[in-house]
């Protein structure tokens, strides 16, 4: 398998990106060749720090797309950027998957414009996996699309189902619709209309789900308009970091509490594991004709390594073929 | 001041409701008379448990509105319900404020239909106060309205400002717009249009705010469509209860962790205080011609006591007059 990694995406590029690639190759039993896009010299300097760098090829790219640029314009103008070059490799069949920790907007726009959507898909969607009590769940869409139509939400449901069945080995996952009440007639125009359509689909439709019940993990695929999904995601991020920050502060506040913190270390380690975005790798971008993973902007080597792992699963489990088949029906 | 409390609202009615009223009166230095609506005998039985019950009058009401009834129908049909009777007392000037832990939908519909909106207000809004790092913030609207128009969001901003200035003594609070990015051009049709209008208003407009930054408390009044606000609120509820639940589980998992938990007790107590919805009382319903507080459905006596306290502030600080003045401009 050939994977291209955007060497200049994210806050910790290129150093953590390159380390993540090296760490992946060191652990991986699968034959994988990694291409890293970015300024030849800069990436080379990073690569030279490691022994095990045989299966890596640098693809020279002089430009970088920043998070502050208007996405569509950046993709069109910066043809020699690490991101555009990586996207083109997937389009041209030179790579089977792309991972980038760069600008979300640019990656989504670029993947849609350069790689292209799967036939029949009206809108591709960002679909992060999140930790639930009984197992992970997927919230789709989380920000690729705003002002969605009911048919978009139905497509998200089908794509999420295909991903869950292939990658997570859960057949016929429960599909829920984010809403502000559980009854069918609850919600806004979009959810009321979407409910009707989802009920008719060949899916295991759970009905409406309120965000407070999402974390139970009872429902695996949760569909929402991208604006709503994104605000939920960011609310969860904000409140978790507030709670963990306060907890840390409290533990460091006195000798007694420090001892308490030390005794609770195994609990906190488990917590960290359960709530660490890095464990989940990156966020699949579903609906385009290639394996595309958005890694978190603050990804370190571990997050990049896991994002690459995830792209391998995404590829090996033939998620794209599955979505294609679903939409040919 | 005269306050009417819906004696049959919420999961713990009437026992915790009555206790909350008693506790409030015991602590309060202000002269307040409380009316409790509900079946005469049932409320009487509860009241008899306490000594200090002189300033309480029972208003007999034979019916109860449940959370599963369609709100508008329930309000129209159940004229002898504890909620409708309480709302009518506010309408008729027999009470200055109403507190209910009953069905949110019924209370909002009832307050709008029976008490009525302030002149100029297109939609009244639910505006909970939430704990932020630097102080509380208000998220308005949190579920009273879906499919809002930009002008509704502007009205929410003005009402939130009036509340914050009067009750929290913060002049010219910062007003933010919930969005999925900080730049002006980000978001959906509603936020883009609302941004333009909010920029022109006579408010301290902060711009867009992403939900992960809400918890900082930097911005005091945060406006959103009620669907979005409600999902954010419920996501926060869900993830906090998941984290605290896991923490408790972890602490009880071994002797060592139990000791650790005991040493961290002061930290957890502070936590509980900071994140306890009961400390904040209830949620003001802004835009109607009376003081209306929605208490949490699972309110205990402490939550009810604090909700009554909040209604006193709401009344004493003349929030409604302030909103009226704002909308006469």
TrEMBL record, chains A, B:
- InterPro entries noted in UniProt: FA_synthesis, Phospholipid_synth_PlsX-like
Q: Which reaction does it catalyse?
A: a fatty acyl-[ACP] + phosphate = an acyl phosphate + holo-[ACP]
A molecular-function term among this protein's GO annotations:
phosphate:acyl-[acyl carrier protein] acyltransferase activity
Q: What keywords tag this UniProt record?
A: Acyltransferase, Cytoplasm, Lipid biosynthesis, Lipid metabolism, Phospholipid biosynthesis, Phospholipid metabolism, Transferase
Could you name the domain of life of the organism this protein comes from?
Bacteria
Give, as one word, the top-level EC class.
transferase
- Protein's UniProt keywords contain Transferase: yes
Q: How does it assemble?
A: Homodimer. Probably interacts with PlsY.
Q: What does this protein do?
A: Catalyzes the reversible formation of acyl-phosphate (acyl-PO(4)) from acyl-[acyl-carrier-protein] (acyl-ACP). This enzyme utilizes acyl-ACP as fatty acyl donor, but not acyl-CoA.
Task: Spell out the family assignment given in the record's similarity comment.
Answer: Belongs to the PlsX family.
- Name by which UniProt lists this protein: Phosphate acyltransferase
Q: Which organism is it from?
A: Oceanirhabdus seepicola
């Amino acid at each position: 398998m050939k994977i291209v990694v955007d060497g200049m995406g994210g806050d910790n590029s290129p150093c953590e990106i390159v380390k993540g690639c090296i760490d992946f190759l060191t652990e991986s039993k699968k034959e994988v060749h990694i291409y890293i896009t970015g300024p030849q010299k800069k990436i080379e300097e990073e690569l030279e720090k490691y022994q095990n760098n045989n299966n890596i090829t640098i693809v020279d790219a002089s430009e970088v797309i920043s998070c502050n640029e208007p996405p569509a314009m950046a993709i069109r103008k910066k043809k020699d950027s690490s991101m555009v070059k990586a996207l083109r490799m997937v389009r041209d069949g030179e790579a089977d998957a792309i991972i980038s920790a760069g600008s979300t907007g640019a990656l989504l726009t670029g993947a849609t414009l350069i790689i292209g959507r799967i036939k029949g898909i009206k809108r591709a969607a960002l679909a992060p996996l999140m930790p639930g009590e009984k197992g992970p769940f997927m919230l789709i869409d989380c920000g690729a699309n705003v002002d969605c139509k009911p048919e978009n939400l139905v497509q998200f449901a089908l794509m999420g189902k295909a991903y869950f069945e292939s990658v997570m080995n859960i057949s016929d996952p429960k599909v829920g619709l984010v809403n502000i009440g559980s009854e069918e007639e609850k919600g806004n125009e979009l959810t009321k209309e979407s409910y009707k359509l989802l009920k008719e689909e060949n899916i295991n439709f759970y009905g409406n789900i309120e965000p407070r019940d999402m974390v139970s993990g009872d429902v695996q695929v949760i569909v929402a308009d991208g604006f709503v999904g994104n605000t939920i995601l960011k609310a969860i991020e904000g409140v978790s970091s507030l709670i963990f920050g306060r907890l840390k502060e409290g533990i460091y506040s006195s000798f007694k509490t420090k001892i308490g913190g030390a005794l609770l270390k195994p609990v906190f380690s488990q917590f960290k594991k359960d709530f660490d975005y890095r464990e989940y790798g990156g966020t699949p971008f579903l609906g385009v004709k290639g394996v595309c993973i958005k890694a978190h902007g603050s990804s370190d080597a571990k997050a990049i390594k896991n994002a690459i792992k995830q792209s391998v699963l995404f590829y090996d489990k033939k998620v794209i073929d599955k979505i294609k088949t679903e939409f040919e029906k």
